[in-house]
């Protein structure tokens, strides 16, 4: 039997201190029907990110000659996954904040055909080291998405997300600066099924966050407006949020 393919992709900008550790922690064999490959989207890094990724075992590296932004990098990651023949894609930040060991958990609802788009959810799981202002910012932007979608979500800014092939093919990211909110608004509005899986998160100990409050707010809010104004055609599924209970065995589906 020919195996299907999972591609784990990482947007990275100057992550030489972290990316090697993330790649090393990606589980390469966890499902008998799937192979696992690692793709790095290097967004014009000026440090040794590319060399560290290559030595660390990345199967594919795509480099932008100049920094374009995280939204552009994730858009490229989704397109490359399709070009490389992935049946499932999962993005994870290259800064060692999210747990690669939980990739199988985050992908389980997609592998089992219960969801098309998944988050590793920090706020349903465990968070270490997040500052109060970041926590509040996350609550506000998550609440805004919940209101716009009229559905409860827990972690609208997660940097660990899984995608079915169909979701990758149809995802649209309206701005280059970021993807977090507009991607969810876009996919859920199209009717893709979202599931959130609790994960544990540890704020980075090396390198620094790219987020600057003023730039973030003035970029993200207009992009959310633009996304909500753009028409989407709905998929065959009714959009539902599948809340994953901590015990995987007792699944509860909420329409
Ligand atoms: N493509 C791209 N990725 C970036 C940029 N800045 C940061 N990243 C990556 O995006 C991910 C999340 O960035 P980070 O700065 O940690 O954001 P935070 O976790 O929300 O504080 C990491 O993998 C970074 O390497 C950028 O300008 N372009
Ligand atoms: Mg980070």
Description of the molecule:
α1 runs parallel beside α2, α5 packs parallel to α7 (180-189) and α7 (180-189) runs parallel beside α8. With 255 residues, this protein is of the alpha/beta class. The protein has helices at 19-25, 49-56, 70-83, 103-111, 132-149, 165-170, 180-189, 213-229, and strands spanning 4-12, 34-43, 60-64, 88-92, 117-128, 160-164, 194-202, 241-243. The longest helix is centred in the middle third of the chain and has 18 residues, at 132-149. The chain has an eight-stranded mixed sheet with strand order 3-2-1-4-6-5-7-8, sandwiched between helices. β7 (194-202), α8 and β8 (241-243) form a beta-alpha-beta unit. The protein has one domain (4-250): Alpha-Beta Complex (Spore Coat Polysaccharide Biosynthesis Protein SpsA, Chain A). It is globular and about 45 Å long. It is built from eight helices and eight strands, in the order βαβαβαβαβαβααβαβ. Helix content is 35%, strand content 23%. The structure holds guanosine-5'-diphosphate and magnesium ion. Guanosine-5'-diphosphate (GDP) binds next to β1 and α3. It comes from Paenibacillus sedimenti. Residues 238-255 have a biased composition (Basic and acidic residues). Residues 8-169 form the Glycosyltransferase 2-like domain. This is Glycosyltransferase family 2 protein. Residues 236-255 are annotated as: Disordered.
In short:
With 255 residues, the chain is α/β, with parallel strands linked by helices. It has helices at 19-25, 49-56, 70-83, 103-111, 132-149, 165-170, 180-189, 213-229; strands at residues 4-12, 34-43, 60-64, 88-92, 117-128, 160-164, 194-202, 241-243.
């Amino acid at each position: 039997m020919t195996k299907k393919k999972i591609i784990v992709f990482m947007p990275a900008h100057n992550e030489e201190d972290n990316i090697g550790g993330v790649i090393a922690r990606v589980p390469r064999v966890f499902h008998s029907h799937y192979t696992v490959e690692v793709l790095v989207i290097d967004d014009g890094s000026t440090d040794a990110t590319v060399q560290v990724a290559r030595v660390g075992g990345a199967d594919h590296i795509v480099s932008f000659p100049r920094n374009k932004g995280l939204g552009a990098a994730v858009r490229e990651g989704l397109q490359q996954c399709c070009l490389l023949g992935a049946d499932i894609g999962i993005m994870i930040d290259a800064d060692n904040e999210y747990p690669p060991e939980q990739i199988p958990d985050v992908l389980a609802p997609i592998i089992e055909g219960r969801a098309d788009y998944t988050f590793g959810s920090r706020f349903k799981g465990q968070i270490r080291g997040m500052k109060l202002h970041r926590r509040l910012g996350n609550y506000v932007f998550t609440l805004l998405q919940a209101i716009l979608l009229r559905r409860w979500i827990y972690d609208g800014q997660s940097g660990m997300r899984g995608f079915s092939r169909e979701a990758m093919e149809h995802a649209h990211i309206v701005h280059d600066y970021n993807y977090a909110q507009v991607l969810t608004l876009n996919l859920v509005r199209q009717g893709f099924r979202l599931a959130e899986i609790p994960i544990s998160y540890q704020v980075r100990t090396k390198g620094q966050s790219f987020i600057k409050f003023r730039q973030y707010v003035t970029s993200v809010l207009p992009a959310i407006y633009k996304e909500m104004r753009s028409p989407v055609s709905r998929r065959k599924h009714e959009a539902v949020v599948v809340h994953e209970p901590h015990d995987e065995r007792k699944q509860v589906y909420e329409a």
